[in-house]
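Feature request, filed as a ticket because there's no other form

It would be nice if the structure record came with a short human-readable summary line next to the C-alpha cells. Right now we just get the raw output. Example of a typical job, pasted below so the devs can see what we mean:
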Amino acid sequence: MLFSPAKLGSPRAQKNLLRLVALFELVKGLLVLCIGVAALLLVHKDAWLMAESVLALLHISTEQRSAQIFLDFADRLTDARLWAAARIAFAYTALRFAEAYGLWHQRTWAEWVAFVSGTLLLPVEIHGLMRGVTAWRVGLLAGNIAIVLYMLFLLLKERRERHAMAAESHGPSGN
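Raw output as currently delivered:
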C-alpha cells in the first residue's frame, strides 16, 4: 500500500496529498478553460469548415464514421450553443480554480467541494465505463474514487478532532 492510514495522518503527508489534488483540479480547470475559449473562437465562424480542416490536418478521411459524426456535430453548432458552452465552461473553471486554491491552503470548505463534486461525477464515470472500458475511463474512475475517499478520510478525521476538543473543553464527565 502506498500510503498507510498512519502515514496519511501526518500533517506533512496530508498537505502534500491535498496539494497534489489541488494541482489535479487546477489542470482540469485549465483544460475546460481552453474548451471555453475554443467555443468563443468558433462564434460567427463556419464550424463545419473548421472541422473539415482539422480532419484534413490530421489526415483523417471524411468517409470514416467517426469523422462523419464529428462533422455532423460541427454542423449543428450555433452561436447560441457556443455561448452557452463557453458560459458553462467558465463557471466550471471558476469552481475548479476555487477548489484548487482551497485545497492548496487546506481549507475544509474545499475538501467538501472536492468530496461532493467527486461523488456527483461517479455515476457519470461509471456510465462511461458501461459504454466501453478504456484505460482512460478506468484511470479517471480510479482517480476520482481515490480523491473522494481521501476527502472523506480528511473530513471524518477533522470531525473526530473537533469532537475530542469539545469533550476536553467540557472537562470530566459528570460536571
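Something like this underneath would help us a lot:
The chain has a mean pLDDT of 90.
The chain is about 80% helix and 0% strand.
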